[in-house]
Amino acid sequence: MLVESSYRFLFQEWGTAMLTYGAFDSRTLAAMNLALDRVCEKAAQGENHSVRKRVAKQIIKCARAGKTTLSDLTAAGQRGLIKIATAPK
């Protein structure tokens, strides 16, 4: 399935694919991918690997908690951006 292949590609390079792949249905995976894309496309450094990784981790955490709507996942990704912006340098 295309969604699962996309999901695997997005998260595999970060080493989290084995922990998350197969844990969610295709609808949740699609929402997770869309949330990641939406959050990162609006972020100043959204194409940066470390930014996408932080956002993805927050989205995965949200989905594991059972909050799988697009709005919940997007909000979780945005919280990941806030953590990046407020992290000490």
Shape: globular
Number of helical regions: 5
Distance between the termini: 40 Å
Instruction: Report the structural category.
Output: mainly alpha
The succession of helices and strands, N to C, reads HHHHH
Number of separate domains: 1
The counted number of beta strands is: 0
Overview of the molecule:
With 89 residues, this protein is mainly alpha-helical. It has one domain. 73% of the residues lie in helices and 0% in strands. It contains five helices and no strands. It has helices spanning 2-12, 17-20, 26-42, 49-64, 70-86. The longest helix is centred in the middle third of the chain and has 17 residues, at 26-42. It is globular. The model is unreliable at 1-9 and 11-19 (pLDDT under 50).
Summarize the structure.
The protein has 89 residues and is mainly α. It has helices at 2-12, 17-20, 26-42, 49-64, 70-86. It has one domain.
